[in-house]
Design brief:
By secondary structure, the protein is mainly beta.
Length: about 300
């Protein structure tokens, strides 16, 4: 057998789907398929890195499980070896939050997948990052697609000069909403009016017009990062842009937002407000993650 195609990702997908077929003996096999791979985005970005999740386990050359949890830790246990919580199958990365009883800790009520991230496998600066996924939109859910400054492959990063901490980019978070997601770019631990220490950045949530079946639908979520701005997209529609030439809080430079970042995926819940036990499991299923960059602009560090 010879598999040939226009791009190695197409060939990988064809082989994976071919070997998954159940073929009858002594029969002529006809095989055809189509793929949604785009090698260029927004007219100037070219594919440089990604994962189609066409296998039976997480590709540890591209991802790793975080050893540290971020956010709400109370009432959670984080797992990376329970297929009810995290697995790769059917061409999808499946991250599920479930009801869970820990015999050693009576306070634990839920299990969530360990954060899946790229600090030691992929860091980048500038480009267009896109994910196709089925995201849970329910009361009490907290899935996120985000990035943190730094990474261990890129040169040493310089933290925010005022706070001394890494900055963060939230491509989106679902704050327990059934119809809305929220983006943000953050400097942490600044003495501002916000009790959480989040700087006063003008912000705009994205609201889905038709959300009756939203938690069962696949949508594409995009993030464009250039030397002058960061923009978020849903299904190819740009809905917010952050100006990287403006120091919004007058407390220091935006230089940390021009350094390397790494990618994180997680599917936590807001344990203080979740109240509908019938909503579990909460399924955050990722079809693919793809990174595009413009020739001559930005940098990519890979394992």
């Amino acid at each position: 057998l010879v598999f040939d195609g226009g791009h190695y990702l197409s060939v990988d997908k064809a082989i994976y789907r071919f070997i998954q077929r159940k073929n009858e003996p002594n029969q002529i096999l006809e095989f055809s398929d189509s793929f949604d791979l785009e090698l260029k985005k927004l007219g100037r970005y070219e594919y440089v890195w990604g994962d189609e999740f066409d296998g039976d386990s997480l590709d540890m050359n591209k991802w790793e499980f975080a050893s540290k949890n971020y956010g709400e830790r109370e009432y959670h246990t984080l797992l990376n070896d329970d297929p009810r919580v995290v697995e790769v199958s059917d061409g999808l990365l499946k991250m599920n939050t479930i009801r869970y009883y820990d015999p050693t800790n009576s306070a634990v009520k839920y299990a969530a997948p360990c954060f899946i991230q790229t600090p030691n496998t992929m860091n980048y600066r500038y480009g267009y990052l896109e994910m196709r996924a089925k995201v849970p939109y329910k009361h009490g859910v907290w899935p996120a697609f985000w990035m943190k400054q730094g990474g261990n492959l890129a040169p040493t990063y310089t933290p925010d000069p005022v706070t001394g901490y890494r900055v963060e980019v939230d491509i989106f978070e679902v704050w327990g909403s059934s119809y809305q997601l929220v983006p943000n770019i953050r400097k942490w631990y600044v003495s501002l009016t916000d009790k959480n220490g989040v700087w006063p950045m003008p912000n705009k949530a994205y609201t889905f017009d038709d959300y009756f079946n939203l938690s069962n639908e696949y949508h594409t979520y995009g993030f464009e990062w250039t030397p002058t701005e960061m923009s978020m997209f849903v299904n190819g529609q740009k809905y917010i842009t952050y100006d990287l030439t403006d120091d919004y809080d007058n407390s220091g430079t935006l230089e940390p937002f021009h350094q390397s970042f790494y990618v994180l995926l997680d599917n936590m819940i807001l344990t203080t407000i979740v109240d509908d036990l019938a909503q579990f499991p909460n399924e955050f299923w990722v079809d693919w993650v793809r990174l595009y960059q413009a020739p001559g602009e930005g940098k990519l560090w890979i394992k």
